[in-house]
Predict the 3D structure of the following.
Amino acid sequence: MAAAPWLTSGAHAQAIATPGANGFLAGMADIGGRSLYFECLGSGSPTVILEAGFRTRADVWTDDLIQPDAPRTMVLPGVAEFTRVCAYDRPGTATGRDGALQRSRSDPAPMPRTAHDAVNDLHALLAAAGIPGPYVLVGHSFGGLFVRLYAATYPDEIIGMVLVDAFSEALEDEMTAQQWAAYDEIFQPVPPALADYGDLEFTDLDASTDQMRDAAAASPLRPLPLVVLSRGQAMAMPDDLPGGLTGAMLEDAWQSAQDELAVLLPDARQVIATESEHYIQLQQPQLVIDAVRAVVDAVRDPASWPRATPVASPVPR
C-alpha cells in the first residue's frame, strides 16, 4: 500500500448545532471516551459516507491536492450538489498542505487497529453526530475493506456502495505465503514526513483480512447498487521489494483482486479509471462523483439501474 501522494489534534469543539450554508455541518462527536472529527454538506437522502484510505484524512475528498491553484470540483462538494454527504478523520491519519503536515483532527487511538475497530468507530460516529441513514458507502483503498465490513455488520443500514480502487482480502489469494508476508512488511512504512507522528495509523493487516473473510462468509453482501472503480494505470513501485515481490506482480495481483470485487454482486458495474493510478478521487474526481450519482439515482429510482435487483423502497430526494 503506497503512501499518499502528498507524503513524497484539532480543537475539541462541539459539533455545530445548526447546519450552515448548503447544510454544512462540522465538528467533533464524542463516541465514548474519544472524539472524532466529521463534516457534512448538502441535503437529501440517502446519505453518502466517504471513507478515506490508509493514513488519509477527510481532506482527500474535499481539497484539490494536485492542482490547488486551479481547483476542480472534488468529490465531497460534487456529491453535495445532489444529496447529503459526510466524511471524517480516522485516528492517526494526516494530510499535507502548503508544505506542512496536518495531523488527524480526531482523538488518537491505540495502534495497531483492525477493520472491526474502524467499523465500530464509524457506527458510533453516525449515531453520536445524528447523521441519518440509509447510507451509501464510498471507500477508497483500505477504506474499501472497512465499508464492506460495515455493510456485512450493519446490512440494514446500507443501500448502495462505491469502491474506489479498493483493497480486497482476495489480494492474499494472489500471492504465496512468502509474498504475503513481504507485502505485510511493506504495507505500512513510515515516510520521513511522518516519522515524529507518534499517533500514526497502523493496521493489523492479517486480523483485518480475516475479519472480512469471516463476515463475508456469514453475511454476504446484499443486493444493492455497486460500482467498482479500478485504476487504469499501474502504480510506481520501487525496484528493491522484499520476498520475491515485483511491481508487475503486485499490479497483476491488485487487478485480479479488483476483478473479484466486480463480481461481488451480479449487477455490479466496474469502471476503469484510465487516467488514474491509485488515488482516483484526486486524479479523476468527476469519475467518482458520477459513480456516486449513479448509485444514488438507483436508490431513488431502481429503474435507472438496468437489471439490478431493486432496493427495498426508493427514498425521497
